[in-house]
Amino acid sequence: MRYWLMKSEPDVYSIDHLAGQKKKTDHWDGIRNYQARNFIRDDMSVGDLAFFYHSNCDEPGIVGIIEIVRSAYPDHTAFDPEEKYFDPKSDPDHPRWFMVDVRLKKKFRRGVLLKDIRAQKKLQKMRLVQRGNRLSILPVAKAEWNHILRMTGED
DNA sequence: GCCAACGTTGGC
DNA sequence: GCCAACGTTGGC
What pTM was computed for the model? Predict the structure, then answer.
């Protein structure tokens, strides 16, 4: 069982979008970066937990917890020319991009903001707080996961 | 295979 | 809106 952090821009897809889905479950499409793809395709399993992170917004930070409920399968939005993330180099016979399904497990009453994470000595090694990190899928160490959970003040 | 140009991410 | 970081593209 692994821990992850998954970024989404709230203007595009926020935690409330996910909360409004049937069974609070949805696919996580649009990953178009090889490192991120390799993480979800090779290392992510059903039952893994991930922080839902709001990026590129007024208050970037972790806003809740999601659970992986389906392991990687081809991202069909790459096949559709109408889609924003269409990629002609991916086709159903040889899919290049993959996605997983996630279910909302918990929305924090108060998110853990990036600036608060940055202020934590014990979280300095997180890839999230290191400069220039643009990866949308990041592994999180168990100790870091627990530390952030404590910062929420919830169980 | 090198590397300049270009595009995207994302915090600030 | 700015800009640093960094991934991708394409000419050579």
Answer: 0.94
Domain count, chain A: 1
Residue A105 sits in a domain of what CATH number? Answer: 3.10.590.10
CA neighbor of A141 nearest in space, from A155, A154, A153, A129: A129
Q: In whole angstroms, what is the distance from residue A144 CA to residue A138 CA?
A: 12
Each residue's pLDDT tens digit, A34-74: 999 999 999 999 999 999 999 999 999 999 999 999 999 99
The whole-number Å distance from A10's CA to C2's C1' is 21
For A39-71, b where at least 16 C-beta lie within 10 A, e where not — what string? bbbeebeeebbbbbbbbeeeebbbbbbbbbbee
Q: How far apart are CA A14 and CA A55, in angstroms?
A: 10
Amino acid A116 CA to nucleotide C6 C1' distance, rounded Å: 25
Using the CB atom, is residue A84 less than 7 Å from strand C?
no
**Residue A132 CB lies within 7 Å of the nucleic strand C:** yes
